[in-house]
Amino acid sequence: MRTATTEEPRTPYRVLALAKIRPNPLQPRKEFREEDLADLEASLRVSGLLQPITVRPAPRGQEGFELIAGERRFRAAQRLGWSEIPAVVRDVDDQTLLSLAMVENLQRADLNPIEEAEGYDQLIREFSLTQQEVADIVGKDRSTVANILRLLALPASVRRLIWDGALTVGHARALLGLGDATAMADLARAAVAEGLSVRAVEERVRSEGQRKKPARSTAGTDARTAEVRDLEDRLRRHLGTDARIVQAGKSPRGELRIPFYTHEDFERVLELILGRTLD
């Protein structure tokens, strides 16, 4: 007769010394708000850690572990003076390390748009991924990834305003229509100072584009210009860039000009025109 034996349940995590864990070197989130850390610290003090952090063994030749996900929990535990913390240990490569950190931050809505764009760009540059592969990793449409990457074409001062939450992604898309770094920075500062809505910024961008066009003289041409402006507006909304229709006088011949600001932006515009991915 066989006797029943009881097995001790396996713990899905290990308890590691905080001193042996170092932050994720590929963490896409660059800044952690003090109030968020304080709130989490208060929660850990009262309720403890509800979800273990995730780490990987340090690279060959080094001791300890590197964070994959849970850096805020890690920092809050440090602030509380904990010596140990529960952690799930996974053996992953650098690409997976960055990918998991990106996904965790996006799922928690922790990344601001510029951090998100820089994270996507890092995946593309360091691991030679396509936009579609990045989109698959983070569970988003390719067009969404491409639109976020366009933010990196903004001047540094404008990116900082978006980072700080002074401007939205909608403001940024409108500003990109100017195509000139100085003009974008000037209008961005005005938008913050005057509290301009996205629609108001779009109107100013449109007015700036019209101001640069040669003046028309005849009534017939003015009527055609109004029609052209409507078509340009529709193209801008569809393509997300400052599309222009250029005609010489009353001639039916002309050009459709569609600017792009980065290689990724060029691919995004082509996809919208062709109606399919380029990969």
TrEMBL record:
GO MF, any single term: DNA binding
Any GO CC annotation of this UniProt entry: chromosome
CDD domains: SPO0J_N (cd16393)
Keyword Transport: no
InterPro entries the UniProt entry points to: Chromosome_partition/occlusion (IPR050336), HTH_ParB/Spo0J (IPR041468), ParB/RepB/Spo0J (IPR004437), ParB/Sulfiredoxin_sf (IPR036086), ParB_N (IPR003115)
Region of interest called Disordered, as start-end residue ranges on this chain: 204-228
Keywords: Chromosome partition, DNA-binding
Domain of life, source organism: Bacteria
Coiled coil residues, start to end: none
Limits of the ParB-like N-terminal domain: 14-106
Biological processes, Gene Ontology terms: chromosome segregation; positive regulation of sporulation resulting in formation of a cellular spore
Protein family: Belongs to the ParB family.
Full protein name: ParB/RepB/Spo0J family partition protein
